[in-house]
Amino acid sequence: MPTSLSSAAALQTAVLDKDELASLPAFQRTAIELRDRIISGRLQAGQPLAEQELASEWGISRNTVREALRFLHGEGLVEYRHNHGVSVRCLSRQDVRDIYRTRRYIELMAVQLPETITHYHLDRLRQPLDLSAQAAASDDWQAVGTYSLRFHQCLVHMLGSARLDAFFTVLVAQQRLLFASGQYESAFQQPWLERDRRLWQLLSEQRLAEVAQMLMTYLEESERQIMDTFAAPRERLFQAL
């Protein structure tokens, strides 16, 4: 069964140390690993989740997998369909609006408090930026999307609230389900690479009013881009980017 977490999962669960993670029930550790697969793009919207396959992969009981899936259902990440079993959830336009409304509240609060922007947090923010650049150079755009989400998790982590960290981790997983995938992901992710780096630069210079304005515009434009995917075929949308 999953007894350790990948680097992505370790960041998501920053409120827990290694011993705390090890002390969690098996179903919760399994749920964390599945959530990590969603955030990293390895599990995508609509993908079936077969209990027996997951149980065999990790050497755990189907009951443990079933409990983990119920846990993720409570987080809005999987859905049950009659006669079709469990699958990764497909989100709606209303979900998009709600996710971005929530992101604006939390992330803008995080970047407007000078006392939260320490050298520790700036270093922490820099790590996913560097990894994102490496992934882009390797043409791994799925990883670029994941590291961009990590960057925004680190923004929220500046607030120093374990509850907000945990809440935002679930929000990030839901956000990942909105991203384009496959051959279109490079066009989807490219516009945000430099913007994330510019946000970091402004934060490091304590130019907080500019950070807030840029972040507001960033989130508004990202929301519009996501909403457009509901209104146009992917081929036409990403040819226009």
Automatic annotation (TrEMBL):
Gene Ontology MF term list: DNA binding; DNA-binding transcription factor activity
Domain HTH gntR-type: 24-91
PROSITE patterns in UniProt: HTH_GNTR
Chain coiled-coil ranges: none
Keywords: DNA-binding, Transcription, Transcription regulation
Presence of the UniProt keyword tRNA-binding in the record: no
Keyword DNA-binding: yes
InterPro entries: GntR_C, TF_FadR/GntR_C, Tscrpt_reg_HTH_GntR, WH-like_DNA-bd_sf, WH_DNA-bd_sf
One Pfam entry name: GntR
Top-level taxonomic group: Bacteria
Name of this chain's protein: Transcriptional regulators
Organism: Zymobacter palmae
